[in-house]
Amino acid sequence: MRLYGLTGGIGMGKSTAAECWLELGAAVVDTDDLARTVLQRNSDALHELRQRFGGSVLDEVGNLNRRVLADLIFEDSSARERVHTIVHPRVRHLWQEIVSGWRRNGVEIGVVVIPLLFETQSESTFDSVVAISTTFATQIKRVEQRGWRIEELERRSRAQLSPEEKVRRADHVLWNESSREILLEQIVCVNGTE
């Protein structure tokens, strides 16, 4: 099996690239989805977050208060590190179990989408790391379509490696400034280079 780690900045097209890989028959898992699983109501991780940061991390029915967690992560680097030590090992365990299942089942191409791939020192796990990138203007346009303000993009981006650094460290780069079809063609080329 060829195993790709896919990373990139906010609004650069990781989900679209993942969909393209699925169309090409690859197995795909997104660690953002796994993080939601790890932080579901009554989970050990959510209980640990509540112990560390207090009841404000929960909403009135006991679910994660994502806005409060985002404020912790993106405004306080020491709190961000504490949250990461709770969440990232659990997420890593889940995606590694999934990858093991792919290997047992003879999957030919697997893709793990990890926005913080380099930040979590996960690159050595993959045959190749693929970074998706775009211009800052396009990134702004996409996050505004999500209803975000540029200040929110900047706040979140400060907590990650820059897109330029992710591109520099990657084995392959997908440039996502054009159509979905062109992105798909780039992914076919990446698949063909291994």
Task: Give an overview of the whole structure.
There is one protein chain. This protein is an alpha/beta fold and 194 residues long. The protein has a domain of 134 residues: Rossmann fold, CATH 3.40.50. It has nine helices and five strands, in the order βαβααααββαααβα. Strands 2-3-1-4-5 form a five-stranded parallel sheet, sandwiched between helices. α1 crosses α9, α3 packs antiparallel against α5 and α4 packs across α5. The radius of gyration is 17 Å and the shape is globular. It starts with a strand and ends with a helix.
Index terms:
5 strands, 9 helices, alpha/beta, Rossmann fold, 5-stranded parallel beta sheet, 194 residues, globular
* Number of DSSP-assigned strands: 5
Shape: globular
Radius of gyration: 17 Å
- Quick one: CATH superfamily of the domain at 2-36 and 94-192? P-loop containing nucleotide triphosphate hydrolases
Identify the CATH class of the domain at 2-36 and 94-192. Answer: Alpha Beta
Helicity level, as a percent range? Answer: 40-55%
Low-confidence stretches: none
**Main beta sheet:** 5 strands, parallel
Order of helices and strands: EHEHHHHEEHHHEH
Strand content: 5-15%
Distance between the termini: 11 Å
Q: Architecture of the domain at 2-36 and 94-192, according to CATH?
A: 3-Layer(aba) Sandwich
The CATH topology of the domain at 2-36 and 94-192 is given as Rossmann fold
Structural category = alpha/beta
Mean pLDDT: 94
Summarize the structure.
The protein has 9 helices and 5 strands, in the order βαβααααββαααβα. By secondary structure, it is an alpha/beta fold.
